[in-house]
Amino acid sequence: MRLKCTSLKYGSILLLLLLIGQSFNFAYAQTDRKISGSLLDNTNQPIIGASVSVKGTSKAVSTGTDGSFSIMAKTGDVILFSFMGYETKELIVTTASTYKVTIAEASATLTDVVVVGYGKSTRKALTSSISTIKGDDLNKGAISDVGQMLQGKVPGLNITRSGDPNRSAAIILRGASTLREGAQSPLFVIDGVVGADISILAPDDIASIDVLKDAAAAAIYGNRAANGVIMVTTKKGVAGQTQLSYSGYFGVENVSNQYEMMNSDQLKAFLAKNNSSLTPANDKGANTNWQNEVQRTDAISYNHNISFSGGTERTTYNASLNYFKQQGIIKTSDLDRFIGRVGVEQKALNDKLKLGFSLTNSVSNSNLVPYRNTVLSQMLTYLPTAPVKNADGSYFDNLTQSNYYNPVSMLENAQENLKYKNLLGSFTANLKLPFGFSYDVAASYQNYQTVYGAFYNSIYTSRYNNVRNTPDPPANPSIVSLIGQNGVGVRNAYQSTNKIIETYLTWDRKFGDHSINAVIGYSYQNSVIGDGVQASSTNFPINQVGYYNLSLGNPYAVKDFRVDYGGNTYQEVLLISDFARVNYNYKNKYVLQGSIRKDGSSVFGRNEQWGYFPSVGGAWNIDQENFMKNQNLLTTLKLRASYGIAGNSAGFNPLTTKLIYGSVGQFYYNGINESAIGAVQNENPDLRWEKTATTNIGTDFSLFKGRLSGSFDWYNKLTSDLIFEYDVDPNIYPVGRLTANVGKMSNKGFEFVLNATPVAGKDFFWTTGINLARNVNKIVSLSDSRLALAKVYTVQPDGGGQTGATVQLLEPGLPIGTFYTFKYAGKNAAGVSQYYDAKGNLTTTPSNRTDYYAVGNAQPKALIGWTNNISYRNFDFSVFMRAVLGNKIMNITRADLFRPNTAQFTNIPVEVADESTADFNSYRYSSRFVENGSYLRLDNTTLGYTFRKGIPGVKSLRLYATANNLFVITGYKGIDPEINQGGIAPGVDTNNFYPKTRTFLFGLNVSFN
């Protein structure tokens, strides 16, 4: 017994020693050690600043200037390598301590992640048409509007921009789908926040942009998605050491083109040849180039952006501060803007819960040009023989001529300023649940505030109090009377808020060869628009008061002056939605998707406040089939088809459908004139949103292991229930006009993208890509059984001697932007311009509208963008060219300058020297001034050099030079062929040609250790 106990005792000790030994061995085996190596791309170039982390821990570092990394890990750990624009790669640590890791660009495959509504998807799993542009591939330059960054980059996205830094670009995706001004732009979604203002973002903050083109992709956003959806993803913090970086540039802009107007000698010679001369009031012996006097010789722009980010596997953060300043090429105009962003993401509950918070605030200050288009017109027509100023320093003016103003005086004696603040805050929570479920909550708050001021000093109110204002088409020119004296000032302040709460449940589960991703959710949005006040005043003691102190005016001493309280109407809009989407994937070969959204909105009629927006799509990844396994030509091949319905509720307020009473005149009662109140707007309880149904068929492909890739899409887009204003019987309706759903519009087209990597060497790398798009637009109908419109004449430039003349037409069977005017037939024997009448006979006295012909269209037949990127060792070079083909432009500006018989009163172009003063029709709007608007523009070229080593404390340093708008090849005779192609009056150049510039930038990007 004792022996047994002794044996047990020693056996226990032996067992304990063995266990301790094993523990030491286990502890030794689990001890962290230094794991190092280098991270390279598929061309053996080092990737700088990538995140290197140990999965499931807080250990994280970043790669250095040569792509090197060093991190503590143990055998069996999984190291994650991630970098924006590249596939995430996992490395299992073995007994080795040094590794060479290569990761591929995500854009080179169909497996990269695409942001879609309420979730993400791999490109291989898509059934719809979505274009993705990475942040580094966006347009570079002195860009004040993010829309300009996409210009020419996305097939089917037609973007036209002004040279004015304070004007947003017009954005049309796959053709116009509405006849309402201001309702054609796509819906922007920033980091999941629907309807966010894109101006709140600095270009350096954008990681990628996904453009949802067809209704199947966009229908998940329901009644706001008919014009497409643009999803913007901003840069986030990544795990690793703190990343501190700075980017900045300095730019100089010059006018790229001017009208060739006559100088003093040319004008006098022309008048003498035609037995005419200047009046003494106009011939002051000067030789003034008014375009040079109105425009800056050099406009300066600069941008500074500083950002830092970092964190651990469970907490990441990012922050940035951006300052942008751009002078307009027109004197007194400019824009400066501050943007600050901060974001934090935190994981909790064993990484089951992820919380996110971001806050962005932008503060902008815009100095505008009062009566901008009038100034642009006057700088062309004002006589060169007149000086800018008199000998005593006062501004010269010949006030005996009507509609004739010194443009420099107009600039200097008025001021118009708009300050606006844009705040966007968002909170997100994602909870991972059992069985493949996850639950998301997102809340956001947007606040947009404007403070506007305008002041027209005593010179303005005494000389220019009846200004001929020429707004952008389709608005018509008018005479604006500045009632007041000793200056007129106006000031207003408004704010708009937008509150959104969205919650959705996602189920992502795989069953063998089958996988399902399903989303069901709810959205609530409350918007308040136009909450504010306006006031005006006049009769100020001095001009220096400006618009800041309206109380210093004495308006009550001016008999006819009335305080302007503004025209903004307070509005509150409520939108409630339910949505669902299901994706089914079998063996990654066959993909099906279906979605539906139910929207309820307070802006439409009480009988039509709810709508349903379904979509369905399918895709076949042919490259996954067995019969494709033994071939080496095609890397990927995919066919897809989709159909969906989306809506358009943009540009509406809750009062649109209501019966509204207002002042309709006066009546005499008991010796007093009393105000008469009556109906001013009809009620329409059946007004609903426009619906756009889109069929899309496409293919994606790549060949030669991804060296050649592309896509092709064909679409058919039909919009029904077009909203327009119709004449109605006043015996039935209180008012003679009714806003109703009646018409239909069609857009059909195709898009083609081809990307190639012709050279992929160790030192030399070249990628090139071209995109081509064509769209055919047509108004199908403007009538139904109740209401009918045969034709709608639009754009009435109202030039001298052409009262009542219009130049465009909306008519079933024709596209938006159809030019409808006189058909020019050359000149008769007497040198007078003649035209064809309605019967085809020649006449010098045609009748407006009766003798009009369709003579061209403003919409382009093709849009082309071509990108080339070349790198050689540390050098990089890129060239981007853009072409617009087959469109026409109505050059109203040039037509109004074709006045040889009035050259003693207003200047004329050099080309008019060959015109006869006997031609009383020379300026008449006609096909003579409908010009080919096609052009090829070298939009951007950049040369850069990156220092990767040798600077203490600096991870990388890149210096670059960029040139924008180096040249334009075009036959157009105006300032620039890029005329606004948005709205219902595209392609009309009517003194709204804020000059384009040629820009040279010098900048640097630097990141610190």
UniProtKB/TrEMBL annotation:
Residue ranges of every copy of the TonB-dependent receptor-like beta-barrel domain listed in the record: 389-966
Broad class of where this protein is predominantly found: membrane
First and last residue of the signal peptide: 1-29
One GO location term (cellular component): cell outer membrane
TonB-dependent receptor plug domain: residues covered: 124-229
Keyword terms of this UniProt record: Cell outer membrane, Membrane, Receptor, Signal, TonB box, Transmembrane, Transmembrane beta strand, Transport
Membrane topology of this protein: Multi-pass membrane protein
Superkingdom of the source species: Bacteria
Cellular localisation: Cell outer membrane
Pfam families in the cross-refs: CarbopepD_reg_2 (PF13715), Plug (PF07715), TonB_dep_Rec_b-barrel (PF00593)
Coiled-coil ranges per UniProt: none
Similarity comment text for this entry: Belongs to the TonB-dependent receptor family.
Protein name (database record): TonB-dependent receptor
Organism: Pedobacter jejuensis
